[in-house]
Amino acid sequence: MLYIHIPFCEKKCGYCAFASVAGARELYRPYCTALLEELSRLPRRQLSTLFFGGGTPTSLPTDLLCELLDFIRQHFSFAEEAEVSMEANPGTVSFESLRRLRLAGVNRISFGVQSFDDDELRVLGRIHNAEEAREAVRMARDAGFDNLSLDLMYGLPDQDTQAFDFSLHCALELHPRHISLYQLTPEEGTPLFTALENGRLTLPGEEDIIAMDSLVNRVTAEAGFEHYETSNYALPGYRCRHNIRYWHNEEWFAAGAAAVSYVQGCRERREENPWHYIEKITAGEDAVVERESLDREASFRETVIMGLRMMEGVDLSELQCRFHLEPRQYYGGVLQKLMEQGLVERTPTHLKLSPAGHSFANIVMAELV
Known about the structure:
Layout: E1 2-6, E2 8-9, E3 21-22, H1 28-41, E4 46-54, H2 62-75, E5 77-88, H3 95-103, E6 108-114, H4 118-124, H5 130-142, E7 147-154, H6 161-173, E8 178-183, H7 191-197, H8 206-222, E9 226-229, E10 232-234, H9 241-247, E11 253-255, E12 260-263, E13 266-270, H10 274-282, E14 288-293, H11 296-307, E15 314-315, H12 316-323, H13 327-331, H14 333-340, E16 344-346, E17 350-353, H15 355-359, H16 361-368
Parallel strand pairs: 1-4, 1-11, 2-3, 4-5, 5-6, 6-7, 7-8
Antiparallel strand pairs: 8-10, 9-10, 12-13, 13-14, 15-17, 16-17
Helix pairs in contact: 1-2, 1-10, 6-8
């Protein structure tokens, strides 16, 4: 399992707090050269999943992306039917770029659409419009992509349930295999957060959000999607295998500015600034700026919390096998209280959030951390 972080975007969206920079085209080649060097330092392992995230990976010229993919295929081996994912913005792809990526081995593409309402897209600061999103999906299909995912956001400024219903149905009409649905969370320091603080924008109320949540569950189920993780829905056989390994708290390698890896109980975070990342790698130095070694109990708690994001919950036998710990004994009265409140359920095989628990997931996680 390998994650590659591409920190570049054409434009920084107003809500975005991720590690990314707009423009900086002069860094594209030096950054990829540094990435290749860092990748060459990683042990040669077999990969079952590879994920390019960002930022917007498809902001990079396709030649550079293909160069990275070719090197990874030479340095690592791939498991049969390995999942190779690429995040993309509809405004940064063409039929030719998608065709080349498919030929280079990318077999899953995830478009950050966010909305099919042009006014909402402008408020969010997206560089594409609704029709360009539809066209990107059509081009991806023509280029040979079957495993196609769409990201949508809801709870947008001044959005009502009817407006979100429109976007959700527009997304489903494109027949994606997977859909991620995220409630907008304003992040301090972003232009959107400032606009909300100043009263220039307002978010939907709690009743509207509850109605949108209900809409999501009903409409996706009617379309045949499995709700398998807090924010993710998939047709049978199309769950994101890479992200599932995160939620199971399994090991993964990573490379690139701001990328985080987790290997043998040690979490490592790399230099976030792409200029500094390039300088460190070019000088032969380690780009890791923070290391955290988790002891058995800390790793156990993290695995429980991550696993509870899955609708099926966390597997009790796997917890016992990995950590020799049992949640009810470990958490004692804390877990018992959550179960009595109807927020957490225990089946013969799993510990999971109840339907009510998913609405108060942050409260549950805070109790179990």
